[in-house]
């Protein structure tokens, strides 16, 4: 099975526990969003996958086998920090990196030309990296991850600093690589992008995976919001309804959260009892809202 597996990986830096039996997999042809607060363990996990750091325990496997030097050469990695040589020309640098991964000189040049063209930086091949804008440096960084035709992609904050056009280009590239069967994992704080782009999402808190699945799966069993536009409803009209919590009011619209099993029809009846109801909408939480709930619940568990 062409899956990247992270199995019970733990890592400690002195008294700081960075990872606690981190476990998840990225399947062939899947885009997996890896999200968490700063310091949650995302970058540490990626560095262990790359072999930059050694795990204290646990294992990283690719195609069912432990990752070694040769298999790691088939990974395309994009670090959050700029990982390019600032005084080296873009084209020369990409050819150099491709050759380090085993491509011939001719194949490395062809690949460099193709990816700089695709990512919109072909006109900057002769420029030093340090002379590029941050957005163009990010495009070159992605080209460096792709230039050797990797079998796995591991990207740390790949959309950081990109304009909307560049975001679309990068999104298309990631979806194209996934379509070729490449497992793609990327971290991002831009949860709206993660929600749109990813097949599955893993939420990390305090060094461990606390929830994973499609966004719809993560929503299952969680709270549902009701938006009720009842212009004549007084304050407190929904108080006392079982499984219902008022979380806000925006003009004549009351925002409610329902617990699993709560009767939304009871909410509608209560609203109609106050007068006309102009709108009654069920809304599933966004990934941003799910993230807040999951991380908050995990932190509560840790303090018990």
Description:
This protein has ten helices and 14 strands. It starts with a strand and ends with a helix. The protein folds into two domains: 4-217, Rossmann fold (3-Layer(aba) Sandwich), CATH 3.40.50.300; 223-284. It has a six-stranded mixed beta sheet, sandwiched between helices. It has 304 residues and is α/β, with parallel strands linked by helices. It has helices spanning 42-50, 69-72, 90-100, 105-118, 134-146, 164-179, 191-197, 215-219, 264-272, 287-303; strands spanning 4-13, 16-26, 31-36, 57-62, 65-66, 75-78, 152-156, 184-187, 200-205, 208-213, 224-229, 244-250, 253-258, 279-283. It is elongated and about 75 Å long. The longest helix has 17 residues, at 287-303. InterPro entries: AAA+_ATPase, ABC_transporter-like_ATP-bd, ABC_transporter-like_CS, DrrA1/2-like_C, P-loop_NTPase. Belongs to the ABC transporter superfamily. One of its GO terms (molecular function) is ATP hydrolysis activity.
Structure, briefly:
The protein has helices at 42-50, 69-72, 90-100, 105-118, 134-146, 164-179, 191-197, 215-219, 264-272, 287-303, and strands at residues 4-13, 16-26, 31-36, 57-62, 65-66, 75-78, 152-156, 184-187, 200-205, 208-213, 224-229, 244-250, 253-258, 279-283. With 304 residues, it is α/β, with parallel strands linked by helices. The chain folds into two domains: 4-217, 3-Layer(aba) Sandwich (Rossmann fold), CATH 3.40.50; 223-284.
